[in-house]
Amino acid sequence: MRATLMYAPGDVRVENVAAPRIEQPTDAIVRMVRTCVCGSDLHPYHSMDPTDGPARMGHELLGVVEEVGSGVSKVSKGDLVITSFHYQDATCVTCVEDFACACPAGGYLTECQAEVSRVPLADGTLTVMPVGEDQTEILPSLLTLADVYGTGHHAAVMAGVREGDTVAVVGDGAVGLLAVLSAKKLGAEQIILMGRHRSRTDLGREFGATEVVVERGEEGIQKVLELTGGRGVRAVLEAVGHMPAYEQSVGIVRPGGVISRVGVPQYSEAPVGFTSLFGRNIELTGSPAPVHEYVAELLPGIMDGTDDPGRVFDRTVGLEDVAEGYRAMDERESLKVLVTP
Amino acid sequence: MRATLMYAPGDVRVENVAAPRIEQPTDAIVRMVRTCVCGSDLHPYHSMDPTDGPARMGHELLGVVEEVGSGVSKVSKGDLVITSFHYQDATCVTCVEDFACACPAGGYLTECQAEVSRVPLADGTLTVMPVGEDQTEILPSLLTLADVYGTGHHAAVMAGVREGDTVAVVGDGAVGLLAVLSAKKLGAEQIILMGRHRSRTDLGREFGATEVVVERGEEGIQKVLELTGGRGVRAVLEAVGHMPAYEQSVGIVRPGGVISRVGVPQYSEAPVGFTSLFGRNIELTGSPAPVHEYVAELLPGIMDGTDDPGRVFDRTVGLEDVAEGYRAMDERESLKVLVTP
């Protein structure tokens, strides 16, 4: 079968690989209906060590179950299912009480940009969708449940966004835009989107952003302070992961506020001392999102047409052309690339 | 009048200074009944730049109001009052909605180890105590409301400590021990106190610690993991402020847990990346405590005899001997030193 392999920075190929098969009784084999390229796939696309390659790619998958192991009970052959980008059993004490992305039996999916994927711990990782694969219009929105929508939602949930809130979203990628949508759904009154790509920030406005700040650094901070009567925002949803985004977050959050990060940090240490966080009682939170847990909450709005998170996809390529999808996202020609079989 | 001055590391003197007087209509002049030496006073005692001295010292004060400015309405001459270590108006939007210790009109008290002090913004900073200065037995516990009790309580509150919770307290100073007491009052079931001073940890056990871990670093981390079935604790209350305490906190907190800092950080940057906080969904919170806001909650337990936070004072000196108090605390002969007129 055909699968995406990254050999080195900028070098993505689609090649023949052995078809996956059931290895554990908790596995499912899923035929891809839709997958996509993630902003986080661009990190290795920039800086991967070629000795780590060729590496299978992809962690977002909407597909049809072809086969399940003997220990799988919640999904069956023929079901249209969505994955979470992290697999987990969803039954252990870590999953139930602590944090699913730390499930001792779990891990991150890494092979979904392919014709067929093996999904471990299928009962805790897959959710059956209430439609068939022929309902093509809704498929992009369903696919966002595998990562970007749940991740944007997680940013807002961890920040405790509430009715009447004042929020800033740092980053106009797919996660940032869906953090805007989530903040809006949770009742935020003022939502300032910090980003400089006009087509993206326009979509952000449609998702609920009340203001857009294109400036960065100190200038961007001053702009946000102006827009909030000098107070800054109560909640920052940081959807980038680079240090300048962190520093910007510290600059725009008000005393007693919260910085909620869902951009995977590309740094190990950051300012957390008296002048940055401690002295002003700023909370730092956020993590990879336990998106499997959010499907039940987010799916109804998609099904009834209220929410259309699939609008973050602005280009579609076939699996054979996935390299073109990486290039387009890398060069900011495309916000997020949908991949069809 | 007599006041404490720090000239250089290890050089504390009591000298004559000009008596304070009302400078702003919101000021009060308070005659000291009890004050004390704080763990945070030991930071300059170790590392103060002598060119910054001589510096007035002290931010915890129980005293009797001698005079109030024309704009003060909540306290009157003759009242026994407790300060918060930070002064604030308690009426602005920052105080009411965000964080009192960021009050634009506020600041930190710095001159309370003296016969008489000027307290700015008296209405937002002083709370009248329901006893007279002759009720000497209860005075030490009341004095803890100015800082250490409210600060320990803040650590537990910001960590969201709740019924049945699993908590570790890092540090067996006065704040750490009162964080134990606060965690106990909020319903924590398991409270692991990390500290190595037997007399202090014994008091910690009386305040509610269920276990004591004397080991530090990796050994201490392993011990806490053992005591929690390998999971770590849901909430760490960090009452030290040095980097090893931060690292220890990261090591003992479970996925999805929280590190709540009230030890003033003696560092600017710290690990917050994927392997320390982000990947395991660890929240970092904490700050200087808005202790004025906690008086109403904590006072009843002191008045009815349920709580005796004043037990953290294990030595008393007169104001003229305050240098001896610094020395005793610095050499760990004393946990916390009470100062009488």
Automatic annotation (TrEMBL), chains A, B:
Molecular function GO terms recorded: metal ion binding; oxidoreductase activity
Classification via Pfam families: ADH_N, ADH_zinc_N
Keywords carried by this UniProt record: Metal-binding, Zinc
Superkingdom of source: Bacteria
SMART domains in the cross-refs: PKS_ER (SM00829)
The protein's required cofactors: Zn(2+)
Enoyl reductase (ER) domain residues: 10-339
Name under which the protein is recorded: IMP dehydrogenase
UniProt organism field: Dietzia psychralcaliphila
